[in-house]
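Kindly go through the following sequence and its backbone structure tokens. Advise at your convenience whether the structure tokens fit the sequence:

___
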Amino acid sequence: QVQLVESGGGLVQAGGSLRLSCAASGSILSANVMAWYRQAPGKQRELVARITNSGTTNYADPVKGRFTISRDNPKNTGYLQMNSLKPEDTAVYYCNAEITAWDTRTYNYWGQGTQVTVSS
């Protein structure tokens, strides 16, 4: 019923930029909270950033000042603009969304992940 489709991952040089997109589709009334997580090899998944439907944002300390999370509410799409990328940002990035479906119930969904690789 609901699917999160990610795009925008890839390989970039240190100091470069990427923009990740997460499009939610299906029987959606609203995407209440959207977030990005990442997981590097040998490490557990960590929160990168999140944004509420009112626009309130939170960022993990390592990405503050470099990453910006945003959303297009009519399109139920979230974005993560990543600037000044560092090799330490290399990870699989996952979109996460708290979604109210047409049945008025709230569910939590995950995207399948997209690889971001930052070379030096």
